[in-house]
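I hope you will forgive my troubling you with a question about protein structure. I set the record out below, with my sincere thanks for your time.
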Amino acid sequence: MKNDAKTALIILSDPNSNSDDANGKLFNALAAAYDFKQANQEVTILFQGAGTRWPALLEKADSPFYGLFEAVKDKVQGVSCGCANVFGADTTGYDLISTNAVPGTSGLPSFVKLQEEGYQIITF
């Protein structure tokens, strides 16, 4: 039986907080992405809010999450454009997503569009 489930994982936690909560949310998001990927289910990862600061940190080999991130990096859709601007995130190498033209911003990912594309949305 074919599974047509699609899941979008939205990472919002702030790495600058250096808290167990933020690290735990990131770890669980990446672990979920890995689980979906291993099950051959469609999964996409978006970094939004203060979470836009994560990608630059995850690229560093000394990050405790580096190995897991490398295993799911191909599932990263991108980084919220407007949030990256607000939070001063280094988004080098990542697509900036601006499908939701929120007034006063350069745009954020559209949850409506994700739902219309059949994605279940989970936030971390």
About this structure: The beta strands are 6-11, 42-47, 76-80, 96-97, 119-123.
